[in-house]
Task: structure prediction
Amino acid sequence: MKLRLTFAVAALLAVLATRPAAETSIAKPEDVGLSSERLARITEMMKRHIAAGEISGGVTLVARHGRIAQFEATGVTDIDTKKPMTKDAVFRIASMTKPVTGVAIMMMMEEGKLKITDPVSKYIPSFKDLKVAVAEPKRPGVNAAAADEPAPVKYYRVPAEREITIRDLLTHVSGLASGSMSNDSIRVPEISRKPTDTLADYIPRLGKSALEFQPGSRWSYSPQAGFDTLGRIVEITSGMPFDQFLKQRLFDPLGMKDVAFYPTAELEARLVTPYQLDPKDKLRKNANPGSMQSKVYFMGSGGLITTAEEYAKFAQMLVNGGELNGKRLLSPRTVSYMASVHASDKLEGRTPGEGFGLSVRVVRDAVASGSRVSDGSFGWSGAYGTHFWVDQKEDLIAVMMIQTPVREMRPEFENAVMQAIIK
Result:
């Protein structure tokens, strides 16, 4: 009998040894210094916006000290079908892809394959002699307000005072496709992206575009081109296609299975319908929900789809200083470097109290920014309404996944999380 029991124990231990490392566990909120009663206000906030007809539903997740204290699905994934929202619902995270690209660049920096002060032309030679767009003076007597649509700004080009760097792209101070003139310059046929283009096909053509301003002179968001260029730099320095690099070097080590640039049939079945608010504040379906997904063009700026729980693994790695479940992606010093202010909040275009780090917003002074998060907190948001941040002082992460761009929900979510901290 004892021998049989010994074999059974040995068999059980063998099974346990083959299991992956433990993932973030569930905690009673009070065990990690949070109030259950106060955390319930997060769901109340979500229900208010559902009742107001602003979102169909969403998923929220809060973890502290490495344990999940709040994880709720509210509402429906689709208004027509009324399919209930589930915790494993899949969301288009849009620009929350950017911090993932930022981590990939940090990994290449740690390996000595690039420096963030490197000129982009070191990796993509066509960026060597970029020009800057300068608006032509308006003709006297022309009343733009009287026209049905504002006339496009006419501009001429002057040489850039210096080359744009990897840091410029990471911090949105490059001027690459960052405004009306520079965006206009990438729409010409010889530059514009084709449906069959890869990063290797398209990114070099951006060297023919015009920058919106002199590099480093101000902050202006580059929605796509800047971080797509960073994705191409990861390909060049790693020797791997960008999607494969992310899978092998980030997602697999972090145990992120439900994340992709293009949905499989299984992920497609869990995709939440994206909506927009029309001029009468009524929800209508997004006309082109798959515009960022591609099987060949892997956007460093916004192409990923995933779940709240999967993205929380990425955020937890950051709050842990670059490690999760025994798998280290970055050193703590590199995470600190990434989350430091590299573009000051004093720079034209930035919000007071909020600087910009290497791919993330950094709250330098929460009082000045009107924010409820801790000084030093960092994170980013997505065009469909997704939002996350990392608070290393409180050892906390928070993720909100919705699919309607309701900007006021971001500070409301931050407030609902922070007011739940009781010790």
